[in-house]
Specification:
There is one protein chain. This protein is of the alpha/beta class and about 260 residues long. The chain is about 30% helix and about 15% strand. The strands form two sheets. Strands 1-2-4-3-5-6 form a six-stranded mixed β-sheet. Strand 7, helix 8 and strand 8 form a beta-alpha-beta unit. The longest helix is centred in the first third of the chain and has 18 residues. The N and C termini lie far apart (about 40 Å).
Length: about 260
């Protein structure tokens, strides 16, 4: 069975082509404002590759802790500078926010990206003390969920995790073996199983799976599967689709920001 259409988002979202430039524009405006106020630290290194960099957005005063947002794009596209505006909600509530880039498939495997994100979180944790909250969208939701596997993060960093929010996550990678995108992802059965959060032990850290009510059924299923496997919270954000379900992260008083920081 070819599941390619089940995981295709853009063709089912009106004016889907407008979203990437909209994100980039909002991110650029937010970056400019943060840079002018001296609250943006750009391109901090966490590894040897060119994309092994993260940006750190700082609050006006002392940071209550660290939020790390990991972007999506099916592990194949986008970077940290496309999403800086999504730090707005947490920063306004006195949290520092790190946004990492990572190498893309097919130059690396998904398992390599998982390790890169662990390195990015570890490096960001050195910069900001206090509790750590992770959020990630789509492929980024997969990546933050994977951080709850034993041994990926150093014990001192893992012990600081206070909440993990996979948003529209890919929590079971096995269906992606039956999609045309796997020509780029290069997943085999063993890696799909090893990289599937639903097959990991239930974590002790609080987790909320968040998904839009107007998303493709496959993504609602993926969020439900994670909630069922881990016995964690599930929020179905009615009226939201895959491209706008993350919008609330830019606002300090949104439901998604409240849940992430609560």
């Amino acid at each position: 069975m070819d599941l390619s259409d089940s995981y295709a988002n853009g063709r089912y979202i009106a004016q889907a082509e407008d979203y990437p430039p909209r994100w980039a524009g909002a991110a650029a405006c937010f970056r400019k404002a943060m840079a002018l106020s001296g609250r943006l630290r750009e391109g901090l290194s966490y590894g040897p590759a060119g994309r092994n960099r993260f940006d750190l957005v700082l609050p006006k005063g002392s940071a209550a802790g660290l939020v790390v947002f990991v972007h999506g794009g099916y592990w194949m596209k986008f970077g940290r500078a496309d999403w800086t505006h999504l730090a707005g909600g947490a920063v306004a509530r006195d949290w520092a926010v790190a946004l990492p880039s990572y190498e893309h498939c097919p130059q690396v495997r998904i398992s390599d990206i998982t390790r890169q994100i662990a390195d990015a979180i570890t490096a960001a944790a050195v910069e900001v003390s206090g509790p750590i909250r992770l959020a990630g969208h789509s492929a980024g939701g997969h990546l933050v969920a994977r951080m709850l596997a034993g041994g990926l993060l150093p014990d001192a960093v893992a012990g600081r995790l206070a909440h993990v929010m996979p948003i529209s996550p890919l929590s079971d990678l096995r269906p992606l073996l039956q999609t045309d995108m796997n020509a780029t992802l290069g997943l085999d059965a063993a890696e799909a199983e090893a990289e599937s959060p639903v097959l990991m032990p239930q974590p002790m850290v609080p987790v909320t799976a968040w998904v839009g009510g107007d998303e493709r059924p496959a993504f609602i299923d993926q969020a439900r599967w994670l909630s069922q496997a881990w016995g964690c919270g599930l929020v179905i954000d009615e009226g939201r689709h895959h491209f706008n379900v993350i919008d609330g992260l830019a606002a300090p008083d949104s439901a998604i920001t409240d849940r992430l920081l609560g």
